[in-house]
Amino acid sequence: MPRTQLQDSGARKGAGILESRLTRLSRETFARDVWARTAALTRDASDFSDVFSPAAVDELISRRGLRTPFLRVAKDGSTLPPSSFTAPAGVGATVADQLDDTALWRAFADGATLVLQALHRTWEPVADLVSALSTELGHPVQANAYVTPPQNRGFDAHYDVHDVFVLQIEGAKRWVIHEPVLPDPLRDQPWTDHRAAVADRAAHGTPHLDTMLRPGDVLYLPRGWLHSAQAQGEVSVHLTLGVHVWTRYALAEELTRAALAALGDDPSMRRSLPLGTKGTGETGETNQPRGADSSYGDGGLDLDLVRERLLAALAEADPAPLFHRTRRSQARPAPLGPVAQLTALNGLVTSSPVRLRKALEPRLEGTRLFTRVGHLDFPAPDLVPVARLLDGRVRTAGDLGLALAGRLLRAGVLVPADR
To answer: Which comes out higher in pLDDT, residue 342 or 301?
Structure first.
């Protein structure tokens, strides 16, 4: 059976967010000249008032009932404990992890930065932008907002382990950028592991960029690039779109998992080591030929056997299924309203317009459809209409067949659509 080919969904779909809203560069030019290579500043990239605003900040904090960890508070490089800005919210909402808008106001007035986290889960316009950008890039994206009072900063110079697009929404903020002390850090290599080098580079190194961001400006930083920022004479609001990039190392992790799963089916690899096993690197002498299963030998570790079988498993492993499963798990499908969904299901007729739910990451492999809401198996007659659905166009239930349309609506794969 041929191996599954890893594919880049951004290359297939090309949403155009990079060019239209963030960089004024085509996806191809950005990939060739900027992506993962260098910091890039785009002046007046777009008007982001339709995406986020100071009014959105006030609504989220005062009226949406947000809880931790949807907000952090930081001042002068330190993060405040959640207990300092959370409290119960009265009758029917007594859990003490809810944002206390009075406490937040006092912290903000005292110079603290408010960090609204995971805005792609709480603010629809941001969610739409993040979903489109993630589709175009082929990497998971999340969004935070940073709200800083005048002449203050929330964090010291540091680097992130993900790429970022900084979208200035309101006010002005000075950004000082330095080249990495650790290029392309992995997710388990945070800046705090290199605190002294980061502090020295920020204090004594020549900045790669020292600039003021104003509303509409966009700054792109690859992971590892050092940065610090300070609000100027008014409140600053900016969005950070964090791109949690897939790396060759991550693919190696998936390959290793696939190989280990295969070794788990090998009875000889599941056997216990003998009593009195010696330390790693020592091999007990046995009369068995090299490469034979000597795990019941004279108390040694037959590392040659383990290495041989592990390499064989790696050579045969296909990481693609695990890769796609992990990729699907790192984001959510588009919102689904249960009342509207049930109304559509109960009122389904041949003329009912339906479409594939967005951001499902669908993959049809053989007779099985994989999505972010699970997988479904189909009989051969249903495969052609199911394949047609993957283009995202609006169809009628009659185009698919009422039984198939009903099944997909019930599974949360199809949603009602407007013509």
So the answer is: 342
